[in-house]
Amino acid sequence: MPFATEIHPVPGTLAESTADLLVLPVLTGEEGPEAVGGVADGGLTQVLPSQLADLFAHYALTGKPGELAQFPVSRDGGLVRLALLGVGSGSPDDLRKAGAALSRAARGKERIALAWPGSDAAAATAFAEGALLASYTFTLKSAEAPADQRPAPVIDVVGDPAALIEPLALGSTLATATALARDLINTPSLTKDPEWMAARAREAAEDSGLTVRVWDEKDLENEGFGAILAVGQGSTRPPRLVQLSYTPENPTGHVVLVGKGITFDTGGLSLKPNDNMKLMKTDMSGSAIVLAVLSALASVGANVRVTGLLALAENAFSGDATRIGDVLTTYTGKTVEVLNSDAEGRLVLADAMGYASTELAPDVLVDVATLTGAAKLALGTGIGALYSTDDSVAAEIEAAGEEAGEPLWRMPLTEDYVPTTKSRVADLANIGTRGKDFGPAGATDAALFLREFTGDLPWAHLDIAGPGRSMQESGLLTKGGTAFATRTLLRWLARK
């Protein structure tokens, strides 16, 4: 859903603003909190209820990013509120947190004015990301939210517009792409079947100047996408494969992004318990992220050619569903024994990645998926798992994740675990077969399985099962799909 909040750079001083919430940044100085933004020059000193040092002490402020205290001050037009907002060191990460805290605290206000603390362009981009993403809402309620719960329509960033306009616009672009992915992820599966996702891809292609190709179930059968077909065969709503292509002038390389797109996951015959199943409208997060990234590449000025593949299927429970012990033939010809129908994400990815590695000749292959509960157990809900066959690619994506505030932790592709991916009757098994020497290693088993379909290309696998969903409103996150890795991938691709 479109953001209710807009961010504008404006000239002048905070004292000249007509906003109903004035915001003064507070840094964590070496000798204690330090206000920036020109209180004296801005003409606000005389309206403060006390000296700044006394206010810091009264509210126990340290300048920690996101820390906030509000109080009324008198202006010519009457009372307005002044907020002291902690911005930490002024770093991008601290400004992102501060922006999110400000956005949440300002619900119900009409206009906010923040005195820009003079941080660099990257900090302005991060501030816009935080402020906008914290204002994100998704609702299908029949009644509008109460006025005091609605995001502020306008945030004015008071400073030098010439220095702020581009970085704030970039932050808005990154946040808008993330919001698009969140909207797709949060849409109920009653609406969101594979064809619905294909239609959203067609819309994105038209809006963003992309080319699009869609395989329906007959195309998938004719061209040998046996794994995608098998995952989707239990549903009355058939699977799709979508290809989106972004080609700038004189591209510097070719990257393929592959997204897992299970539009609802019952687990198939390996049926999930209800507590797990009720989250499964978000199991197509990878495909939503890839679609959103492709839609924003032109806006971030990416010079690399990018192909996005959305592997879409509904994993349903029925008499037509894939049985345990069935053997599938994937696009590359490799056969896979299905030992657990709830390990379906790696199957649809295998077909899409196999197609990419044999037909598209990319320089780099990256997949993103809410793939394994094991990754969530290992790293919790704040960090994504990164597997890669290429140190340079891994380092680039890790750096982009750090800059985006979407941390990734590189995990090992342990060669001793490769035998656990093997089947006695097929080339591969879709879950670890737990050889006598090693116990289960679910996230690594899945990564090693996927590696079989990369064609030895430089490859990175992002398992976002942990940070891909949020169970609470916190910071940049709202309850539901997070679209974690959208901003990471856009930053990475914009630099290639």
Defining traits:
496 residues; alpha/beta; eight-stranded mixed β-sheet; 14 helices; 20 strands; 23% strand
Textual characterization of the structure:
The chain has helices at residues 52-58, 92-105, 121-134, 161-186, 194-208, 217-223, 226-232, 274-277, 285-296, 345-360, 373-379, 391-404, 442-451, 486-495; strands at residues 6-10, 21-29, 32-35, 68-75, 78-88, 111-115, 154-158, 211-215, 240-246, 254-265, 305-315, 327-329, 335-337, 364-369, 384-388, 408-410, 428-429, 459-463, 469-470, 480-481. With 496 residues, the chain is α/β, with parallel strands linked by helices. The strands form four sheets. It has an eight-stranded mixed β-sheet, sandwiched between helices. Strands 1, 2, 3, 4, 5, 6 and 7 form a seven-stranded mixed β-sheet that branches. Strands 12-13-17 form a three-stranded mixed β-sheet. α12 links the parallel β15 (384-388) and β16 (408-410). α9 (285-296) runs parallel beside α14 and α12 (391-404) crosses α14. It is elongated, with a radius of gyration of 24 Å. The two termini are 30 Å apart. The mean pLDDT is 94.
